Predict the structure.
Amino acid sequence: MVSRVVYGAGSFDQLGEILQPLRAPGKDTVIFLMDDVFEDGRLHGRVPALQEDLLILISAREEPKTQQVDALVAQIQAKGESTPVAIVGIGGGTLLDLAKAVAIMITNKGSAADFQGWDLVRQKAIYHIGVPTLSGTGAEVSRTTVLLGPERKLGINSDHTPFDQVVLDPDLAIGVPKDQWFYTGMDCYIHCVESLTGGYINAFSRSYGEMALALCKEVFLEDLDPAAAREKLMMASWHGGMSIAYSQVGIAHALSYGLSYVMGTPHGLGNCLVFTHLKQFYPEGVRVFEQMRKKQGIALPQNVTRSCSDSDFETMTAVAYSMEPLWENALGEDWKSKISREQIREIFTKI
Ligand code: NAD
Ligand code: ZN
């Protein structure tokens, strides 16, 4: 679990104080990885970077890759002989995952691709701090960092992955474009549906999932004022992340991974694109999803896979089909008798 949390509108301004005790004379470099959307000056003067620190602006247009993590580690190591005292990730799931992965790879030799999987990390990561600016993924609380590697899209799942500190400031999400807000918010909603309806569910996970689901319904079906909506979605994301950390996601995520592997579709959008075709598996979940989509006036892109070749569909299907725990969570141990590769492929052709 995340060891330390501060919460509240404006709490971003405590970041300097949080970093202070970590700094020591001669060993005080902090690395900031920040979404380049903040180049617009919104955080001007508020990032507590000192002279020796390194502030790296990163585009979230493409989701994190193992090679990108390796390159960032090399860039940081080239800067100085001493190990940085902390790394701070500021942004949505992309920047949070990058910060977690870089923190791990600074102390573990090799390529990030060597650590994709479960419990492969041996050395403790450097102190890492997550500052979410977009709510929904649960990356701020999870024990994984999802990376696109040379062979697959898979997380570094380990006890060293979760942040040591998270700063939850709902005001940082001011200015998120509406479509993006909805897609990433639906990532959280879909986490809840998949976790709560899955066979891996347990009372611990359910308590978080139910809380997150109720918050999502308030945010996307009621008319809240924007500040309340930001606060509630930030807490929904946290609880949804906690819920799947102790259970598992399901069919939408399996399909969305396949889609994104071939098409590069961003995670939140990919989930929405597939989820709307999963009525058969999540009847109530899809009904409420459609209600939320209409209430928020979001039109999903159409004909996304129109130009896909036969081999593209094959790859998507293979990637989705290979996510065994997700299928097992959704459909049970005999999941292979309940869904075929042809059915999966058929869903991809509808998107
Ligand atoms: P993102 O981080 O990719 O950002 C999406 C867009 O929103 C980007 O253009 C970004 O610049 C913009 N943005 C972010 N904050 C903003 C702000 N305050 N104002 C304006 N624009 C802003 O989106 P995401 O959906 O949060 O993250 C997706 C990533 O999260 C994927 O890589 C996915 O694999 C990962 N993920 C990780 C976990 C986990 O547990 N580690 C779980 C789910 C998803
Ligand atoms: Zn997700």
In short: The mean pLDDT is 96. The longest helix spans residues 178-197. The radius of gyration is 20 Å.
